[in-house]
Structure formats: structure tokens, C-alpha cells
Amino acid sequence: MLTKEYISKLKNSDNGVLNRLLTPQRDPSTLGFILNNLGRLPSNFDGKCLIPLTIHNNDKIRLLAVKNIGKLSDDSYLTLLDRISGDDNNTMVRREAISSIGRMRSSKAIPILIKKLIDLDPKVVIQAVRALLVFKNNSKIKKELLKLKVHPNELIKNVIEKEFAPVKKYDPSKPKHKESPDFLKNIVVNGDVLSILKYVENESIHLTFTSPPYYNARDYSIYQSYKEYLEFLRDVFKEVFRITKEGRFFILNTSPIIIPRVSRQHSSKRYPIPFDIHPFLIEMGWEFIDDIVWVKPKASAKDRNSSFRQHRKPLAYKPTAVTEYLMVYRKKTHKLIDWNIKQYDYKTVQESKVLGEIDKINTWNVDPTFDKIHTAVFPVELCNKVIQYYSFKGDLVFDPFGGSGTFGKSALNLERFFFLTEISPKYFQRIKENINQSSLFSNNNQTRFLYYEDFKVKATRR
After folding, report:
1. Can you give the pTM of this predicted structure?
2. Which end of the chain is more exposed for a tag (fewer CB within 10 A), N or C?
3. Strands, DSSP E only, in 255-306?
């Protein structure tokens, strides 16, 4: 009976028995088990028994044979692997062949790898790039790799940009990653968000979570056209990008909306806001990370099925909308998440850990909140989740459409600082009421409520 232990014994002894076991005529399941459990191969291992398996009719067997050849670090197999990387009809096998060549770290492989940089399969090209980066200080190789800055594949371009990005000089005047301007902490400003943000310096905030006003669905957000509405959001989120710290997050809560029909002779119009704004965000430098679906109870949504339930005629079906999207974006950077985390001291990281039950899937069941003044209020539970998952204690979080101020209340409760802007005087007053009525806000929080002109004076006098 074949076992992992027996295979390990065979690979470290004479290859005779192993050669007989690895004949192409043997059933694929047995071959796969042996190849998958060879593990690290001894330096004296004779790989000739693997060569016939590189033309096996089973894709998995060919893949595992190539992978094991790569473990040998023997550049005498370069010609074989070069042929496989060009001729095999399975992209994973071709990719593994280039990966095996790369693991050899042999200068003899350089011509083969350069040749693969023009392969039509991006996966093969990426493997060749990874292998060549070992020699990136070689001027010839650097020149070849830099040609890929205009490659049509975005992942390849991103790798090249990251690897050859100029080193940024240290700027002592730039605030540290964990720091934010004091004049923005725990402040609510009544005014136009674009005018206000002109006085906020670059990379001031750590997290933005917002739900923009619905298109022509509120008395203070009237636009001449849907195009004008999207352009307004684009301008706001471009400013949010500017003031967001490197590698930090922007979470946008939106959903498609329905504009009621003008009369029974006309149709209603449905606008896919999250999908239409997405291309603008990618273009300005946000990197899409996740989509989280906020699911509300059925009873909280307007029933769109009443007519269809009666007549049941095809084409007229309209599902009741019980979901909204939380689109999660990150300010594009070549630095990994770990870099952001390392900007904080050990104590802050430990105290900011998300405790208790976490959301394991991208659907969050959260009941909506209703307010006597504001008709579209963030639930506290939703704010708490976003703040805990995407910020650290002491961070500055921002909502450009402050609404009733729930995000600010949640931020303070979770020991973050907040910055809110709100154009509506009515909602600005509502935020004041909520803050003053909330037991979460104490005098020590020193929450300030400013009108635009007062904020402008304070910002320019710093």
C-alpha cells in the first residue's frame, strides 16, 4: 500500500522502484498521489523518471511532473521546461513551467524568460516577470521589464510600477501616518463640502464612510440631470481621495434608485448609482476591494410586487429592494496592508482589535434606523462595523454628507475622532440635537459646530 512515508523512503533511496511506480501507464490517481507527496527532493534525485509524465494526457499529472522538476534546481532541464511553457495546451502547466525555471535562479534562464515577456497569456508573463526580478539590477533585464509599463494587462503594469517606482524622499513636514490635524478633530461644519475641503490638507484622514444624497430624491439635492449628479459625486470623492492617507479606506454606501414616472403613460426610471460611479473612482486612483451587501428586513422596504402578484404576467416582475451596497475602496498604493498597520504602536494595535463575533460573509443583516427629521439615517450598528473593521483607535474618520450625525456619535463611542460636513441647515441642527442628547458625548470631547465662514477662518489661521 502506498503511503506518504513509503514515498519518502523511496525518493531517498535508489530510483528503481520509484521509476517503476511512475510509469505513464499507471492510473492517474496513483500517479497524482505519488507526485503530490514527493515533497522536497534530495540533491542526488534522478529526475529522468519525471520526463515521460510531462507529456501525459492528464493535465494534473503534467502539472505535478513539471512542479517536481522545478524542485531539482538543475538547469539541464531548461530546454525541456522552455518547450513545455510554449507548447502545452494547459495554461496552468505552462505557468508552472516558467515558475520552475524561475526557481532555478540560473542566469542561463534569462533568454528564455525574456522571450516569455511577449507571451499572450498574462499568467505566463507574470511568472516570467517574477523570475526576472531576481536579476532586476542587470541593466539589460531592467530595460526589458520597463517595456511592460505599457502592457495591456493591469496586474503586469502594477508589478512593474511597484518594482521600479522611485524611492520617495522623507518629508519631515508631512504628518506621521497615524496623526491627523487637530483642527479637524470632532468637528461638524455646515456648508458645501467642496468649498470646505479646499481648506483640508492632503492625507489628513484615515477613513471615509458616507451615503451620498439620493439623486433628486431629497429637497436639498436637486440636480438638472443624472450626469450632473454623478459629476458632483466624482468631484467630492476626488477630494476625499486627496485628503485620505496612503493605503487607507473609503466605504461608499449606495443603491440603485427609482425616479417615479411622470404619468401612467410613462415609465419610471431606475438609476444604478453604485455601478455608474464606480468607473470614476477607479480612474481617480481608488482600488476596489470588496462589495458588502446591506440586507434590510422585508417589512422596511416598499413593496414593488403588489400588482404583479395579482396579474402574474411576464415582463412586469419587479423585486422589492431590500439591499444597499457598501462599496469598499482603498487609496491605491504599492505598500501592503501590513505597512499601514506597522505605523501604529503595539498598544494601539492591540486595543483596536475587533473582538467578539465578526461578519464572515459579505452580507450584513442590519435593521434600518428611522429619524423624525432625517429620512435616510445610518444605523449605529452599520457605523460601528465599518469603523471597527477599517480604522484604529485615535484615527480621524470623515463623512462628507453628515446627515443626522450617527457616524460621528459612533466614532466617539469607539474612541476615534470625527469630521463631518453637512450642507443642510436643518440636518446640521439635527446633528447638534443628537450630540447634545447622547450620553456618549461628554464635555471632554469638545465637539465643535461651525458654519463654513467660521471654519474657513479657523483653517487659514493655523
Report:
1. 0.85
2. N
3. 257-259, 269-271, 286-295
